From TrEMBL:
Name of the molecule in the record: EF-hand domain-containing protein
Swiss-Prot/TrEMBL keywords: Calcium
Pfam families: EF-hand_7
Any GO MF annotation of the entry: calcium ion binding
Source taxonomy: Eukaryota, Viridiplantae, Streptophyta, Embryophyta, Tracheophyta
SUPFAM superfamilies documented for this protein: EF-hand
Gene3D superfamilies reported in the protein's UniProt record: EF-hand
InterPro entries reported for this sequence: EF-hand-dom_pair, EF_Hand_1_Ca_BS, EF_hand_dom
Annotated PANTHER family: CALCIUM-BINDING EF-HAND FAMILY PROTEIN-RELATED, CALCIUM-BINDING EF-HAND PROTEIN
Taxonomy, superkingdom: Eukaryota
Span of domain EF-hand: 26-61
Organism expressing this protein natively: Vicia faba (Broad bean)
Transmembrane annotation, as ranges: none
């Protein structure tokens, strides 16, 4: 992954997970501790309710928002739970828990190895470098031309312009309320004290002058209160789909799992309307994002569905459903091989690293020597 602006505090590349799962003795002790921790009624099996804290921890370790906050990520929690229970509301043995947890952790490690998360410390230095560099003026002029409006105040224009910048220019995500309330608004408040045009529409000349003043104040705020940002980049080039399609046994297993819980009529047929649901289940194994997570991918998926007439709501038998789903995967692979999609994300880390999830925290009784 290309180095981003900001001082790299840590790189999460999955190596610690591989080290944990790869050592059988250490991983067995780790699983024993976690199982005992979850098995509150001490019956030697985990109920759905007892598994939920583990599922929440896995979600936190994956960087997902808490369950109930985002419909796009909530289904992932459901799928993780289904992995443990096999779609049934039965209790899970320690052996089953260990097998599924190992698969999930190895999947997480593979994802982090492919797309590491870089933890950056944004402290104002890169922003000052940007403000004093040769690219500052043309870039901000371009941003102003995109957001200019005779009805928008300077205050709102500046916030919109800061939102167009990112960690490359030394700006933490302004979509984060903490950044707005503790970094941006205090800088704007200081500017307003000096009689600026904050509440009025302005010309490009005034905007350029006032924006630089705010940006310098933001740099000062960041020097006093550095912001920790988790930065990740993902590249969807079809290689994950290709790997899955090349393993017929694994493909059939995943397709069967994907359609296991889908509704069927009396003759065992299912509607093609559920192809999107099934594709979402298959997505992690194919190196694809969930539907709704990446706009560019959603467009590609939409085009592929039109090509194979996947949205005509016809009822088809299970084998036909699998065949169409495989055809969709093949078409996605070809589309992505010819036109890679790269996306990056930045999110503010509000808690000490690792504190949001207890999943990988070693137990007091677990040996950590490898």
């Amino acid at each position: 992954m290309e180095r981003k602006s900001g001082k790299a505090v840590d790189v999460l590349d999955g190596s610690n997970i591989m080290e944990l799962v790869g050592n059988k003795d250490v991983f067995s002790k780790f699983v024993n501790h976690k199982f005992q921790e979850l098995d509150r009624d001490r019956d030697g099996k985990l109920s759905v309710n007892e598994l939920k804290p583990a599922v929440s921890d896995i979600g936190a370790a994956l960087g997902l928002p808490p369950k109930g906050n985002n419909p796009d990520s909530d289904h992932i929690y459901s799928e993780v739970l289904n992995e443990f229970t096999h779609g049934k509301h039965e209790k899970v043995s320690k052996t089953e828990f260990k097998e599924v947890l190992s698969d999930i952790l190895l999947g997480m490690a593979a994802g982090l190895k492919r797309d590491p998360i870089v933890i950056l410390r944004i402290d104002g230095e890169d922003l000052l470098e940007f403000l004093n560099g040769s690219v500052y003026e043309p870039e901000v002029v371009s941003i102003f031309s995109q957001i200019e409006s005779p009805h928008v105040s300077l205050h709102d224009l500046i916030i919109q312009a800061l939102g167009k910048l990112n960690v490359d220019q030394g700006i933490p995500p302004t979509s984060d309320p903490w950044v707005i309330n503790n970094i941006v608004e205090p800088a704007l408040a200081l500017l307003s004290e000096h009689g600026s045009y904050l509440n009025k529409p302005v010309s490009q000349e005034i905007f350029m002058e006032e924006f630089k003043k705010v940006a310098l104040l933001v740099a000062n705020r960041l020097r006093e209160q550095p912001v920790i940002v988790a930065h990740s980049e993902s590249k969807f080039d079809g290689s994950g789909v290709k790997r899955l399609l090349s393993n017929k046994f694994e493909l059939d297993k995943i397709l069967s799992s994907a359609i296991e819980t889908l509704p069927k009529d009396r003759s065992g047929k299912m509607s093609k309307d559920y192809l999107r649901v099934a594709l979402d289940v298959v997505a992690p194994s194919a190196g694809l994002p969930p539907f709704g997570a990446v706009e560019e991918m959603d467009k590609v998926i939409g085009e592929v569905f039109k090509m194979v007439s996947a949205d005509d709501a016809k009822l088809v038998k299970e084998d036909e459903f699998k065949k169409i789903l495989t055809e969709i995967l093949g078409s996605l692979m070809l589309q992505l091989e010819g036109n890679h999609i790269s996306v990056s994300s930045n999110s503010v880390v509000h808690e000490p690293l690792g504190s949001s999830s207890t999943l990988l925290q070693p137990s007091p009784t677990t040996e950590t020597k490898v």
